[in-house]
Amino acid sequence: MTQAQSTQTVKRPLWAGRTLALIGIVLAAFNLRTAVTSIPPLFDVVGGELGFGNGFTSVLGMMPTAAFAVFGFSTPIIARRFGLEVTAIAAMVLAAGGQFGRVLVDSPSVFLVFSVVSLAGMGAGNVVLPPLVKRYFPDRIGGLSAMYLVILQFGTMLPALVTVPIANAVGWKLSLASWGVIAVAAVVPWLGPAFAQRKGNRAGTLVERSRPDDGTASVSAASGAAPADGDAMPVRQPRGRVWRSPIAIGLTLMFGSTSLNTYALFTWLPKIVVDAGRSAEFGGAMLSLFSGLGLVAGLLMPIVATRVRHPYPFVWACIAFFVAGYLGLWLAPGHGTVFWVILAGLGPSTFPMSLTLVNVRTRTASGSAALSGFMQGIGYALACLGPLLFGLVHEATGSWTAPFGTLGLSLVMLAVGGYFACRPHYLEDTWHAKDPVRV
Q1: What are the tens digits of pLDDT across the range 181-222?
Q2: How far apart are CA 430 and CA 155, in angstroms?
Q3: How far apart are CA 272 and CA 411, in angstroms?
Q4: How far, in Å, CA of 210 to CA of 428, rounded?
Q5: What is the pLDDT of residues 7-58, one digit of tens each?
Q6: Per-residue DSSP letters for 35-84?
Q7: Residue 64 vs residues 68, 100, 129, 266: alpha-carbon distances, Å
Q8: Rounded to whole angstroms, how far apart are CA atoms 209 and 194?
Q9: Domain locations in the chain?
Q10: Beta strand segments in 273-400, E
Q11: Which terminus of the chain has fewer Cβ atoms in its 10 Å neighbourhood, N or C?
Q12: Is residue 218 classed as helix, strand or coil in its secondary structure?
């Protein structure tokens, strides 16, 4: 029996009582990577004007995962104190402010500071979106996960594709700042749910619920929150230490290895292509293609994660795609480049699988938030090594051979982590219920 078959949640109309939450999830998802993929195609232009080289480029490439790691740990604490909705608003404000601020300076160090501010907002958004999906759409976890992950990938792909043409037309500063406007728009839908959530908390009407059999969760509040199912049972907040769960460790390794490889290519793929004799525009197009393959994965992997009881064979398929793409980019980067990028771009399909499993492997929104923060905090810390090591090894050896070998070795983590993450158990059943939720 599949997980979908075992679920007894009655589906409600998608828009019923949760329209603002749906719009907010879509807009927030689009903004989670715009500050990351809008800058690599402009490294040469921005570096020439601000005066930084390959070493500073490596640091910029490491910053997304570092910021995501720090705020992966801290966001669950903030969300427990102020609520998921208020945290989502703060995340989008930071994302917008950082993107506007970094185009107003002429110092590499200050540019880096504002980049970190923007990435901090996106890191917080990474963590709160899965539990927001579980809170407002417990009856549609697979579909909503697929939707927001596809939007996230579209927001990853589009900046890489159009940033250079926009910069050629209006300058690199306006090109980078334009993505902050969408982050401002993402604040608006959450104002209503945040007010309702705070009002519900003051009135003492907020109750988290969980199904013992299928792990779906919902909340009831004064307004703006998903109403609970009729047969859902109120439960206490889950208690335990996340790091004691093999599910949490497995998901962290799986997510961390995927992100390590993905962000290494986000940073260095355009340069690999340019070094093979192609143009900077083609390098940007290849980065966009690599990112765009996430659209396919975002559509398929949430369905796999919610319907296949033990999806571990799909992890091995992703490892095979990574290896084949790396071999092609290493041995023949100037020939069949599109094909090699397609293969490498299918490898990160374990990214949407990991994010979906955060909800599939938990019973409550609180458990989802705790697991999301732990997985992304440590996972992105591991991912920091990707762009940094790839660049340092390339600089030390003068070739791309050793860097690709380093990425290949990191796939061992993906194989081991995927085994534990894909086993059909729930987080709340695998930790020791002695202490409050913490990472």
Answers
A1: 999 999 999 998 888 877 665 544 444 444 444 433 344 333
A2: 35
A3: 20
A4: 11
A5: 445 566 666 668 899 999 999 999 998 888 888 788 878 888 888 776 777 7
A6: HHHSSGGGHHHHHHHHT--HHHHHHHHHHHHHHHHHHHHHHHHHHHHH-H
A7: 6, 17, 17, 11
A8: 19
A9: 16-429
A10: none
A11: N
A12: strand
To which H or E segment does residue 11 belong?
none
Sign of CA dihedral 95, 101, 106, 112: negative
Grade residue 416 by pLDDT with cuts at 50, 70 and 90.
Answer: very high
Query: What number does CATH give the domain 16-429?
Result: 1.20.1250.20
Q: What is the pTM of this model?
A: 0.75
Helix locations, 276-311, DSSP H: 280-307
- DSSP code of 335? S
d(CA 204, CA 222): 9
CB–CB of 254/312 below 8 Å?
no
CA distance 222 to 200: 5
Distance CA 254, CA 269 (A): 22
Residue type at 21 in one-letter notation = A
Cα–Cα distance, 34 to 23 (Å, whole number): 18
